[in-house]
Design brief:
Blueprint lengths: L14 H17 L5 H5 L6 H11 L1 H8 L5 H7 L8 H10 L5 E9 L9 E12 L2 E12 L11 H19 L3 E5 L5 E10 L6 E6 L9 E3 L4 H10 L33 H4 L8 H15 L3 E4 L3 H11 L3
Parallel strand pairs: 3-5, 3-6, 6-7
Antiparallel strand pairs: 1-2, 2-3, 4-5, 4-8
The structure holds zinc ion (ZN).
The site of zinc ion (ZN) has 5 residues, from helix 8.
């Protein structure tokens, strides 16, 4: 296993909690309808004409119901989105409800070693969130420090740094962006969890050393030619998520039967073996993030993971409100 040498660990969370998550994931997958591969494989390529077609095909009310099925019909009528070309009123209402204030979210993870001689490890993580309309935007301020490698490799060039920023943000968004909905307990309001990296020179949440060539990446050491899916995995740790693959030095992941192991194509698991193109986020990840956001904001959120059609529609509608 070479893709990650963060010695993760977890506090002894009850075994059953994880099995619960797994069951829910399975149930959700079962409930999800099969969706058009063409529609979903590259939703960012949808043109405005495609979107209008989609709206016309499905209907605004249907879209609204998908976005917020808890609402009753009368309210749907009242709040039904007019057309793609009339987004202003909703945006105005939402933007005055929640100012786009960025709230810092921080936490720490610690995983115990498997034996007395295994050190185990822990790490601090942080990011910030802001709320805008139907979205909760999770941003990780990331500082890239291009440096020479101890083996003599040169400092990455400015162009290489630029390319790494672009590729990493793309991979991060492909894996994590618009996968979960946060439901606020008090208001029942739903927010799509949107994720992005903000590259900064100071005030960073995450500081990364960037080396030329390829090598074994971890959360804080990246390589210009490294695999970007692995960086999407590493950035998962910056949102407080644990590794889920077997590691004999970590108590909860010491054997294949250990409670911290997941073999369900998780982006935090052993996707090298299970299939890189099948690696995906899981509801348990969204739940962890929702808990941290609840603590940081003083608002109570749960996480759900709707199917990809619903998430695509939420993303499209999120452009307008
Ligand atoms: Zn990892």
């Amino acid at each position: 296993m070479t893709y990650d040498h963060k010695n993760n660990e977890r506090k002894n969370k009850p075994h059953l909690a994880y099995e619960d998550d797994l069951q829910q994931d399975k149930q959700q997958e079962k409930n999800n309808p099969t969706v058009s591969h063409q529609l979903l494989s590259n939703p960012q390529n949808l043109s405005p004409a495609d979107i209008i077609t989609l709206q016309r095909t499905i209907g605004n009310q249907a879209v609204q119901r998908l976005i917020n099925p808890a609402k009753d019909e009368a309210e749907n009528e009242k709040e039904d989105l007019k057309t793609v070309s009339e987004p202003t009123p909703r945006y105005h209402i939402e933007s005055t409800t929640h100012a786009a204030q960025r709230v810092p979210v921080a936490g720490r993870q610690d995983e115990a070693g498997a034996t007395a001689s295994d050190p185990g490890v822990g790490w601090n993580y942080q990011y910030d969130v802001s709320f805008a309309g139907s979205k909760c935007i999770l941003a990780i301020k990331t500082k890239i420090n291009p440096i020479a490698h101890s083996d003599g490799r040169a400092v990455p060039t400015a162009d290489e740094v630029k390319q790494v920023k672009k590729n990493t943000n793309k991979a991060f968004q492909q894996v994590w962006d618009n996968e979960f909905v946060l439901v606020e307990t008090d208001t029942k309001k739903k927010y799509s969890l949107r994720t992005k990296l903000d590259f900064v020179d100071s005030g960073e949440d995450l500081s990364v050393s960037l080396y030329s060539g390829d090598g074994r990446a971890n959360l804080e050491e990246w390589y210009v030619d490294g695999d970007t899916l692995t960086l999407a995995h590493e950035i998962g740790h910056q949102m407080g998520l644990l590794d889920e693959y077997e590691d004999p030095t970590v108590a909860d992941r010491a054997t294949a039967a250990s409670p911290g192991i997941h073999t369900d194509h998780s982006i935090m698991g052993n996707y090298y073996v299970e299939g890189m193109d099948q690696a995906e986020v899981k509801l348990r990840h969204g739940k962890h993030i929702a808990t941290d956001i609840s603590t940081a904001t003083g608002r109570n959120f749960s996480a759900i993971k709707p199917n990809k059609v619903v998430m695509l529609l939420r993303r499209i509608m999120g452009w307008f409100y």
